[in-house]
């Protein structure tokens, strides 16, 4: 996780690859050392959070379009794969892809009006869209409304992605996280990634150079939506039950955004760090203060976000980078903190 | 739909719409003056409601009597929030600005949950209770008083902005910050003032509805989205626009809920947002 902070884009690829490989190997053997189901579940929750955060980061971090309604994609993913499974008996391997495509289409449709809004207002509009969707699903008889959907208990194994043990779920979500990171990494390195950053940092200049702002914003949102929906499908497979409150709720949207913001937006590994921090706080405050956490988890991470916003726009990852630079005898940081200045 | 029912629906919509207007006025004022959206605006309303609740529970002060106190308290909260957080992010990237007020929203909700528990609370036996019947049309006295209060506060704000030196200075800052600074207006002071007034408006709205609306830590989330629709429909930064749009949104909500089903009323109002964005992005009275 710390590899991303110390290595610049120009660092030898082998060093970066070695770090990533070591991290992956660690992630692969971790559940063999931690065998307690509740602790494995905790690891799964972290990976789920990281996957959401990395997916969100594509539109919220790279392209700088803050969505506070990502639950809409998560919910579409969860409901599409589950409906296809329960009504048509379709395997979630296909169901998750269908959910992703549907979410991407939805992203295009909602992006069209919403991208007319800049910055703060786009964020508000995404909350509104997610809220509308939650109301519609809650009142839909076809989707069993507020009652929710149960996945069939009579099936199991890799064909149906339903398991009694936690271990397979761990590897599935690890795979999905790796896929999400790879997509994110590919975008970061491609010309699309440069356009995204141009849209975020210098929208007027980008427009003047002929970059279609709306087009690239739509690309960012739909890719992010696709990956978020896959995460939603995974949630349904793991929990075996979904309802509007568990996958479409505003709290999900907030959590997705928080993970990326806390860790550091616009950086590949930021959301992973954010997930570790946020899920740990969430689980500990739950064990300390009971099921709701009495709001303590909210207080802690809200305080962290405000501090991050005021002192280090690039998240905890940025703070770590700053610290390293200020340590006596430290080498000058390899990564220049990315500026996110937006001209008024 | 008979004429009586129609009038009844219109009256209900008008009453709630005026409350929406009051919440949105503060939001649009802050936006107009400094281009920042306050995601924690609903939480100011929540604090106003709790201020009323505790004034009632601890000191037996009726929410209506406590209104000036609520306003003062929330004005102070607004100024403190500005001085401690917002002042530091004025020149920060837009992302930081969103995160700061968004974090504030979560912080205030979390604190409310921690100190006051997530329970729904009600203020029983307020000074204003019961129903009024005007011919065939009936409405609750608390709702009527709240709407009246909302008109009073919005009107007072309008007068302040257009008829006093300080208010004019605030307006000037909203129109052109640099020009206002050159005229000797202290921008920092105006920003703090906008936050104080904005928070006080939301707090007053909270105090006014505390007599008939359940009070709980997340109550603000119901209002912030609707307030946002009102701001977009009215035109960003326009106080008069927000007032008119508040009434329209209230009418559409009640009428839509009546015609299509009450469970869809919030969805209808939020859809209105998308329609406005597609058809007239600058809203009713917004600057092009």
UniProtKB/TrEMBL annotation, chain A:
Compartments where found: Cell membrane
Membrane-related topology note: Multi-pass membrane protein
Top-rank taxon: Bacteria
Keyword line: Cell membrane, Membrane, Plasmid, Transmembrane, Transmembrane helix
GO cellular component, one term: plasma membrane
Transmembrane segments: 45-64, 71-90, 96-115, 169-187, 218-236, 256-279, 299-321
Molecular functions per Gene Ontology: branched-chain amino acid transmembrane transporter activity
Protein name: Branched-chain amino acid ABC transporter permease
Organism: Azospirillum oryzae
Classification of source organism: Bacteria, Pseudomonadati, Pseudomonadota, Alphaproteobacteria, Rhodospirillales
From TrEMBL, chain B:
Cross-referenced CDD domains: TM_PBP1_LivH_like (cd06582)
Compartments where found: Cell membrane
UniProt keyword Transport, yes or no: yes
A single GO cellular-component term on record: plasma membrane
Annotated transmembrane regions: 6-32, 44-61, 67-86, 98-116, 136-161, 192-213, 219-236, 267-285
GO biological process, one term: amino acid transport
Membrane association type: Multi-pass membrane protein
InterPro entries linked to this entry: ABC_transp_permease, BCAA_transport_permease
UniProt record similarity statement: Belongs to the binding-protein-dependent transport system permease family. LivHM subfamily.
Name of the protein in question: Branched-chain amino acid ABC transporter permease
Native species: Azospirillum oryzae
């Amino acid at each position: 996780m710390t590899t991303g902070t110390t290595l610049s884009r120009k660092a030898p690829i082998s060093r970066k690859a070695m770090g990533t490989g070591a991290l992956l190997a660690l992630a692969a053997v971790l559940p063999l050392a931690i065998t307690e189901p509740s602790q494995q579940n905790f690891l799964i929750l972290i990976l789920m959070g990281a996957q959401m955060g990395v997916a969100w980061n594509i539109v919220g971090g790279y392209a700088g379009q803050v969505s506070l309604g990502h639950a809409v994609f998560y919910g579409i993913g969860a409901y599409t794969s589950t409906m296809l499974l329960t009504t048509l008996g379709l395997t979630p391997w296909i169901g998750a892809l269908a959910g992703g495509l549907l979410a991407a289409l939805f992203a295009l449709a909602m992006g069209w009006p919403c991208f007319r809004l800049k910055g703060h207002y786009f964020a508000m509009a995404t909350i509104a869209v997610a809220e509308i969707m939650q109301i519609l699903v809650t009142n839909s008889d076809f989707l069993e409304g507020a009652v929710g959907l149960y996945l069939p208990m009579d099936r199991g194994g890799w064909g149906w992605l339903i398991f009694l043990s936690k271990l397979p779920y761990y590897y599935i979500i690890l795979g999905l996280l790796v896929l999400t990171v790879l997509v994110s990494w590919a975008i970061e390195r491609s010309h699309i990634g440069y356009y995204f950053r141009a849209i975020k940092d210098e929208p007027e200049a980008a427009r003047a150079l002929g970059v279609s702002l709306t087009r690239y914003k739509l690309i960012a949102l739909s890719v992010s939506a696709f990956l978020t929906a896959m995460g939603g499908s995974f949630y349904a497979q793991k929990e075996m039950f979904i309802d509007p409150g568990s996958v479409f709720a505003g709290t999900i949207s907030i959590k997705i955004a928080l993970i990326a913001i806390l860790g550091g937006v616009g950086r590949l590994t930021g959301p992973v760090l954010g997930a570790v921090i946020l899920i740990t706080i969430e689980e500990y405050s739950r064990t300390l203060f009971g099921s709701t956490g009495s709001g303590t988890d909210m207080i802690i991470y809200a305080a962290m976000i405000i501090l991050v916003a005021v002192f280090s726009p690039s998240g905890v990852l940025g703070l770590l980078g700053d610290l390293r630079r200020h340590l006596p005898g430290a080498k000058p940081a390899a990564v220049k903190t990315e500026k996110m200045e937006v001209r008024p | 739909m008979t004429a009586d029912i129609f009038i009844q629906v219109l009256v209900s919509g008008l009453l709630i719409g005026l409350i929406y207007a009051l919440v949105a006025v503060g939001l649009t004022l802050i936006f107009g003056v400094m281009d920042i959206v306050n995601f924690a605006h609903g939480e100011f309303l929540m604090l106003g409601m709790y201020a009323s609740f505790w004034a009632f529970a601890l000191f037996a002060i009726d929410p209506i009597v406590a209104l000036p106190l609520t306003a003062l308290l929330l004005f102070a909260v607004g100024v403190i929030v500005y001085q401690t957080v917002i002042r530091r992010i004025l020149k920060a990237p837009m992302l930081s600005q969103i995160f700061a007020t968004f974090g504030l929203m979560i912080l205030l909700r979390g604190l409310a949950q921690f100190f006051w528990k997530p329970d729904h609370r009600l203020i029983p036996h307020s000074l204003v209770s019961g129903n009024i019947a005007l011919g065939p049309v009936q409405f609750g006295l608390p709702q009527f008083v709240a709407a009246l209060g909302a008109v009073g506060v919005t009107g007072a704000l309008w007068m302040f902005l257009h008829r006093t030196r300080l208010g004019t200075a605030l307006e000037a800052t909203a129109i052109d910050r640099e020009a206002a600074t050159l005229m000797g207006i202290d921008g920092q002071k105006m920003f703090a003032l906008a936050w104080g007034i904005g928070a006080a408006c939301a707090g007053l709205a909270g105090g006014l509805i505390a007599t008939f609306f359940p009070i709980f830590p997340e109550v603000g989330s119901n209002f912030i989205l609707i307030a946002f629709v009102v701001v977009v429909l009215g035109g960003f930064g326009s106080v008069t626009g927000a007032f008119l749009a508040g009434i329209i949104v209230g009418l559409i909500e009640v009428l839509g809920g009546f015609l299509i089903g009450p469970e869809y009323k919030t969805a209808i109002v939020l859809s209105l947002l998308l329609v406005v964005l597609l058809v007239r992005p600058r809203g009713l009275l917004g600057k092009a």
